[in-house]
Amino acid sequence: MGWTFQPDRPIYSQLMEQIKRRIITGEYPPGEKMPSVRELAMEAAVNPNTMQKAFAQLEQEGLLHTQRTSGRFVTEDRERIMSIKEDLARNLAMDFLRSMQELGYSDSQTVTVLEAARLQAEKDTASGKEGV
Fold first, then answer.
1. Looking at the structure, do residues 18 and 59 belong to the same domain, yes or no?
2. Which pTM was predicted?
């Protein structure tokens, strides 16, 4: 997964979000050693200080921890990871519901749209196309 950034938000917060996603999807599994700040900064094409700030925030949130001479590691606290995953899912759902309300959809119409999208995703998956 590549690194993408929006110009209207601080880069360090976008780095945090993308690293969180990588942790909750298992790209960086619990207990795994993280790449160094410099490695990830180079990969993401950002200043190492910006990556350091993102790492420091993720440590404060309990997703990363430092072992003095060994580097940074993903937490082994699977409940913490699941909690963050659930928060992200809830936020995505709330954003979607707000957007649908702004478009003038009722709750039942929104459910109908979601069901149609789910069915289309199943068809796409079955036919080998990329789904939602």
1. yes
2. 0.79
